[in-house]
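fyi for ur records
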Amino acid sequence: MRSSVDEQLRTLITNPLLQSDKRVILVIDAIDECKSGSQRRELLEALATAARECANLKIFLTSRPDPVIEAVLQGLLIKEKLENRLHDVKHPDTTNDIAVYVHHSLHEVLPQDKRPRLAEKANGLFIWASTACRMLTSETRLSSPEDVYDRLISLDQPGVIDDLYNLIFERTDPEYYAVMCSMLALLHGAFEPLTVDDLDDLVKHAKGPGTESRKRTQCGFKDGSDPIPPPNAGRVPSTVLDPPRWR
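which gave:
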């Protein structure tokens, strides 16, 4: 039977620290990535309890603005709080950090006068800047850095990551495009499986003939809305097992 978050923290962190004089800093990045608001609340309340019980435990959290997190933390004594600095894409620290990153990454690829324009095009989004830099420095690119740069600068909206991904897909060798899409779908499903709600949403928007019951079975449901493996679950696609077919 699974233990609660509070019990796990007590077993793994609180109790050992109560018997030690060592000072420990617990760092949790992107705590807002817990999808469920109830899970975020449970985790934060357990961390708050651990911090109150252990004087030698310090906790460092990062998160995007989130009402659940703010509500739990509101009544706690917080030593230091940096609010909205990194979330604000227009903050000087954010734009300066991106400019430094672009200059360092592309100093052997682009002339100095072009690097600031690319950093500005990121519009404060590091993921945009880092992806663009990878496109320019990749050994497998199909075009020269100058051509890639021109396409990046010509994008209509600055900092729109979807436009950047579309540009990557457009520049993919047509011979491998279909396989790439299949592999990305496979990886996405492996690292972030669909939830029951996601599957239910697929059923609602399913197209083609078939009864509702049949659609639910195809999407991984059985009677009572319990998820079950679809017919091909667990079977590795032949394109993965037989690379020569798509090379």
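Confidence is low (pLDDT under 50) at residues 213-247. thats all i got for now
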